[in-house]
Amino acid sequence: MTTFERPMPVKTPTTAPFWDALGEHKIRIQYSPSSDAWVFYPRVRAPRTLAGDLEWREISGMGTLYSFTVARRPVGPHFADAVPQLLAIVEWDEGPRFSTEMVNVDPADLQIGMRVRPVFFDYPEHDVTMLRYEPAA
């Protein structure tokens, strides 16, 4: 059987502050003073205002499970050994939503609206840390 190495994110000048913070087990996202709003995904201009005023600020990463699906078939050959995969969207307390994966939970225990907390997965061979979520209770 052929095995595939899982794809890993690639840092860019725009996204590096996010990935570097995860490497420190912290979560930093952008905040726009001109629109008084938190912003995610990383970008160079603020949404709505197009201002160049985006600032990197740390957040707790705490949030609510906004949506999820239980993938019982691999989403690709790279994930053949990772089923069921609990794909999720978490809404951070600050507002933006983040696509992620739930861990340390039975799929039957997942509920929309449940409180979740961040879990950091380090991949030193790739110099990257991935952000996952687990139930906060």
UniProtKB/TrEMBL annotation:
Domain of life: Bacteria
Coiled-coil boundaries: none
Pfam families reported for this sequence: OB_ChsH2_C (PF01796)
InterPro entries: ChsH2_C (IPR002878), NA-bd_OB-fold (IPR012340), Thioester_dehydratase-like (IPR052513)
Domain ChsH2 C-terminal OB-fold: 56-120
PANTHER family: BLR3430 PROTEIN (PTHR34075)
Record protein name field: Putative nucleic-acid-binding protein containing a Zn-ribbon
